[in-house]
Design brief:
The chain is mainly alpha-helical. It contains 4 helices and no strands. It has helices at 2-9, 15-25, 42-53, 62-78.
Length: 81
């Protein structure tokens, strides 16, 4: 996940989208439970890893995360958000 974070930090054009996606995928009341960060639930992350790679043990590829964020940004723009 550190590699993913650095990849996103290197793309300022995706910062707002990354923040928005973190907010959208974080469970309600995330600030009340460790690790006290707006991260998706483990179930959601496992689901995404299986649908992307077919394996829950694989780490996400930073390029795939950047592509996904760019897609989310473009989708929101097309929807007028």
């Amino acid at each position: 996940m550190i590699r993913v974070a650095f990849a996103v930090l290197g793309r300022p054009s995706l910062w707002f989208t990354a923040r928005r996606q973190a907010r959208r995928t974080s469970p309600p009341g995330w600030w009340r439970r460790p690790p006290f960060l707006p991260v998706p639930s483990g179930d959601y992350l496992r689901f995404r890893l299986v649908t992307q790679y077919g394996d829950t043990e694989r780490s996400p590829d930073p390029a795939d995360v950047l592509d996904s964020l760019a897609w989310c940004r473009d989708w929101d723009r097309a929807a007028g958000r």
